[in-house]
Amino acid sequence: MSADAVTEGTAASTDVFLQKPLEDAVPIRVRDLRKSYGALEAVKGVSFAVRKGEIFGLIGPDGAGKSSIFQILGGVMQPSDGEASILGRTPRDARSMIGYLTQTFSLYQDLSVAENLRYVGELRLLSKEEIRERSAHYLRMFDMDRFADRLAGRLSGGMKQKLALACALIAEPKVLLLDEPTTGVDPVSRREFWDALIPLAARGMTILVATPYLDEAERCHRIALIHEGRIHATGTPAELRHSLGLERLEVRANDLARAEELLRKARGIEDVQRFGDRLDVLVRDVAQGERSVRETLKDLNVTELHLREPTLENAFVATLRELEGDVSLSPFPRARQTGMPKRNTTAISARSLSKRFGDFQAVKGVDLEVRYGEIYGLLGANGAGKTTTIKMLCGLLEPSGGTVTLAGERDLRSSSVRQRIGYMSQKFSLYDDLTIEENLDFFAGVYGVPRREREEKKRWVLSFSGLEGRERQLTGSLPGGWKQRVAFGASIMHEPEVLFLDEPTSGVDPLARRALWRMINDLADYGVAILVTTHYLEEAEQCNRLGLMVAGYMVAQGSPSDLKTAQRGTLIELITDEPQLAMKILRDEMERWRVSLFGDRLHVVVDEDEDTAIKKLADRLKRNGIDVVRAYREPFSLEDVFIQTVERARREGKVAPED
Amino acid sequence: MRRIIAQARKELTQVFRDRLTLALALLLPLVLLALLGKAISLSVTNIPVVVQDLDRTPSSRRYIETLQASLTFRVAPLPLSTQPPEALERNEAYVAIVIPPQFERSLQRDRETEVQWLVDATDANTANIMRATSVALTQDFLTRMNLMAGVQPAIRAEIRFWYNPGRESEKHIGTGAFAVMLALFPPLLAALATSREDEQKTILQVYVSSISAQEYLLGKALAFMCVAIAEWVLLLASAIPLFGLRFAGTPAPLFLSTMAYLFCSVSFGLLVGTLIRNQAAAIQATQTVAFLLSFLLSGFIFPIANIPTSVRWISHLVPARYYIEVTRDAFLRGGGWAAVWHVPVMLALLGSLFFLIAWLRMRRMQMDV
């Protein structure tokens, strides 16, 4: 672009910016925004506008430029070029009208909840009474008024995040900027957080939110897919889901690995994604696609085939693939001398495992079994005991009670066991101050990878992480997602028989996540036993079996489909003309957890059968003057399962509400 | 103003919340003060000396007695079988003295002889002191033996010790250590509190509010001034009995200079904290710069006049240099305003300079990339 063109564009848009009605109706306007850090251009000409009362989502992987955009809009960083305006002013001048929630929450860990609120309030020159009233108001609204005197550092992840939101709200901003507010937060807290956001937007607050979670994207009014500093698609979630013009077939068959391989080559099929016990097959023409699937898989016995709406993840992956091609997966160089243990024999087994830290019982009598060739997913809210369990299973932590057998042995610390397991933790797995190559050398060394195999293995990890030619780079300078891929590669270099993965994909973009899961599936197909924890429920679908932990108890186990079928009650999706009000009305009469809002759709869990329930709900809303446009039964998602199970456990008294 | 108070209150809450750091910040200086003040001693005493007396006459014994009478030396005889340099090599003595045969006879007949002093000059400073002592003691010996008659020098230096008549080095070092402690601990706390905001990203919360750089920094300065004043009171209350100090004149210059000095110290901490945005590195920087400079270039131990000119100019930027002047004046010299009026002025200038640089660094209240 020539210099003249830039000036011209700016002049023209400034006029538009100054029109009063527009700035009220469209509080956030970003035009051709650019930001460079030295030679690296993080934001490459981004434009979008957010309307009053809208929740607008920026969806993209780590390193896509989301945080830079937020920092510019928050007035804490200057753009390199282009313009950003908030309520018709520069972000810097509009600071008093902006609430900004950063990724790290910006809380003072050593101040109490009330002190944090007071400090922020005083910086914004609120009076004593205003601070007191509003603190009380928001703490009550977020159901945390009991914790006013607790140190922020002692709050759970979800609570910290709500406190940060309260801090951002205390000055009653007109615009709320939320930069990945729910990263690393469990599904229950995430749902609570979104439940708190939606009424704010309904009252006219304009909200810009960044998230890597595609299920959260569903709750936004409009979203923009951002990748490598550019926006590639903007629209409502429904528009984006259908932008591909594809339909999704859910397929269940006997040998999924083989089925996936066959369908990849079959004609008339656009994409195949594997999710635990099912395949998602994307097709342009349903009838032809279905025929093609049945024909291709005629030897494999297709047990189920359903037509479903495509998901946002389908759309996102397809868009990204168009942009950068799929992540190619070179075959893992196997050099095992000894054979793998027999499939379906027990790899990890725990009997009434428990762990006590002082007065606190972190894990309570957990039974669990993982077989070779199986992917077992451990789910649970923050503090449910997942990480403690995984640490006991791989011998890092001594259990207080119960027994663990790992790879057929009871002595978890013996070197023969250690040689056969791999472990990747969410943090601390790589040394930031070593180069990628030095890290790989170190791990190859400590895991005793034979010298002659090292070079080949290292090359494989680099190609798997897409970092060929960058091995001399310092590990600390990599975005989180890439680091995760290197760490994953490093943990399997010695070809373990049992693999422990603690949140392997947090912050990894969907394409890389697919590559990672293809590799995980590949390992499982080869016979490796894999135990994985995750916060992404979309990802939990990829596991063969799941265990759900609540407050140290294992409350449910089974395949994703089993768990969904085992759910009591029915999930009804309602589309109404006034979803906000409808939620409020229904919540007044039903338990809170039964009703939640996804964008413009309400999800209601009822105990009656479908028809009776729909009739009752419609009647109830009608009495309050709300028309139900559409209502139908939806299959439970894993998130529904998760939240319901936690709620039921809570009501059975297994979980004390956080105190 | 309200934002300054809010900022200061937040800092103080954090300081009081972290009891361990607070205790360390208040008690560690006291321990260090006692250690520094008592361990560093510039007087040279009890130096092991061996004497080989090859003469064995009343005169030679008299000479040895003179040496023994001095507090500087601890004298032991050296057997004839040992060569004097060996005693030095084996670290048995710093000085080996050889009294030649015919010592008495030469003295009486020729009125001239030599005594050999072999001095270990590894420590140049002690060697110098011993050279001076050797001359003085020999002079003393001659006077006592009445061998000086008729050779009275034309000018005799008549020395009297002022201000610190006992030449107690404790008072000298103690007053200095007091200043060094205040150069070290207040900036350490301030630097930590400032770099922590960056490290934990809480600074973003500050940036998005409309607090200005000067309000933010003044708030922090105010809070850590309070902590520093508490430190000062504690240090003063221990230093006075510990080193036997007494106000020699009006304490007013000391009080005023103290305020300026603490401002200097805290501003220096803010400066480090805004420049270095990592707590561990900020600790190191503060310790190295504040402690070393205040230790080496402030006249605490080594007189500023002795510092080679190529680095002496740096001492003008070291606040402790000025504050040591004023503490020594207050407790030893008692010169009052006339002697030290420039101290609060210089300290205020330096403090403002540090504050200004910190402000320049912060003034945009934005992330820098």
Automatic annotation (TrEMBL), chain A:
Tell me the Gene3D superfamilies matching this sequence: P-loop containing nucleotide triphosphate hydrolases
Report the SMART domains cross-referenced here. AAA (SM00382)
Instruction: Specify the ABC transporter domain's residue ranges.
Output: 28-253, 348-576
UniProt cross-references to InterPro entries, sorted A to Z: AAA+_ATPase (IPR003593), ABC_transporter-like_ATP-bd (IPR003439), ABC_transporter-like_CS (IPR017871), DrrA1/2-like_C (IPR025302), P-loop_NTPase (IPR027417)
Q: Which residues form the signal peptide?
A: none
Q: Which UniProt keywords apply?
A: ATP-binding, Nucleotide-binding, Transport
GO MF? ATP binding; ATP hydrolysis activity
A Pfam family recorded for this sequence: DrrA1-3_C
PANTHER family per UniProt: ABC TRANSPORTER G FAMILY MEMBER 20 ISOFORM X1, ATP-BINDING CASSETTE, SUB-FAMILY H, MEMBER 1
**Protein name, per record:** ABC-type multidrug transport system, ATPase component
Query: Which source organism?
Result: Pyrinomonas methylaliphatogenes
TrEMBL record, chain B:
Select a single GO molecular function from the record's annotations and give it. ABC-type transporter activity
Top-level division of the source organism's lineage: Bacteria
Q: Cite a GO CC annotation.
A: plasma membrane
**Gene3D superfamilies, sorted:** abc type-2 transporter like domain
User: What InterPro entries does the database record attribute to this sequence?
Assistant: ABC-2_transporter_component (IPR051449), ABC2_TM (IPR013525), ABC2_TM_bact-type (IPR047817)
Q: Which UniProt keywords apply?
A: Cell membrane, Membrane, Transmembrane, Transmembrane helix, Transport
A Pfam family that this protein carries is ABC2_membrane_3
As for subcellular location, the record says: Cell membrane
Record membrane topology: Multi-pass membrane protein
What stretches pass through the bilayer? 173-193, 221-243, 255-276, 288-307, 339-360
Q: Where is the ABC transmembrane type-2 domain?
A: 135-365
Homology family: Belongs to the ABC-2 integral membrane protein family.
Q: What is this protein called?
A: ABC-type multidrug transport system, permease component
Q: Which organism is it from?
A: Pyrinomonas methylaliphatogenes
Its lineage reads: Bacteria, Pseudomonadati, Acidobacteriota, Blastocatellia, Blastocatellales
